[in-house]
Design brief:
- The relative contact order is 0.17.
- Helix content is about 45%, strand content about 15%.
- By secondary structure, the chain is of the alpha/beta class.
- α9 links the parallel β7 and β8.
- The model has no long low-confidence stretch (mean pLDDT about 95).
């Protein structure tokens, strides 16, 4: 017996309670027979005006990790997805990502995990990217050393970053596509082989797919990439058209 709607696989996902982008962007690229089930990491929608405010947001998210995992695991998913990219790398690059997995492991019942720190380097490898990357985030500049540490760990120098410094967790999802294009133009260049985006509440999926066509290089949306990683981990290799080369070619 299998789940009637999720007969190929159920994903248990956790994301902050303020996040309104992960669920619709995951659902947009979900093949038939795959369902996504969200557990919320409770955080307030407090205003953010500086680096200290953003660091406090990350602290609150980290505190909420285990309770959200425990909650979503009651639906008995087949694979687990960490639907927040900052938690994946904050404070230690790939070492931090491994620590997060170990924290969750006792609650996961042996199922696999996909998170940004695993998915993004896998996508770069799939595209054959070997050189410099640029990065777009909705974060404050306090994110810079964390981004640099992660990029160094995966062997890709960062040419440029653009941090949008969004003024609250909810307002990240209010960023317009025009504003995302401005960020892309700020970090692109002939010296850049690929552009990656952090920030799972930033609505970037459609922008990234169009930017690949216009810029003629991989533009990697963190939500598309993390969901792609989860699908492939379950052996689901469907090609989904319209959401970038990763979902169509790899």
């Amino acid at each position: 017996m299998v789940d009637t709607l999720g007969w190929r696989g159920k994903f248990g996902v956790i994301t902050p309670s303020t996040n309104t982008v992960v669920q619709p962007e995951y659902d947009a690229i979900s093949p038939a027979g795959v369902t996504t089930h969200i557990g919320r990491m409770h955080i307030p929608n407090d205003p953010m005006g500086n680096d200290a405010d953003f660091d406090e947001l990350i602290r609150r998210i980290d505190v909420a990790l285990e309770a959200a995992v425990e909650r979503v695991m009651t639906c008995e998913p087949d694979h687990f997805v960490l639907g927040i990219s900052s938690e994946s790398i904050w404070g230690g690059g790939l070492e931090k990502a491994a620590e997060i997995t170990e924290r969750m492991r006792p609650l996961l019942g042996g199922i696999g995990v996909s998170q940004a720190a695993d998915a993004l380097p896998a996508a770069l490898k799939a595209f054959g990217v070997t050189g410099k990357i640029s990065v777009v985030t909705p974060y404050f500049p306090v994110a810079e050393p964390h981004i640099q540490r992660f990029a160094s760990d995966i062997g890709h120098p960062v040419a440029r970053t653009h941090h949008m410094s969004c003024k609250s967790p909810v307002l990240i999802a209010h960023v317009t596509e025009d504003e995302s294009w401005e960020a892309l133009r700020a970090v692109d260049g002939d010296d850049v082989e690929a552009i990656i985006q952090f920030g799972a509440n930033l609505p970037f999926q459609r922008v990234a797919a169009e930017a690949e066509r216009r810029l003629h290089k991989p533009v990697i949306s963190v939500n598309t990439t993390t969901y792609w990683h989860a699908l492939r981990a379950l052996g689901i290799n469907d090609k989904v058209h319209g959401y970038g080369r990763l979902m169509w070619e790899h």
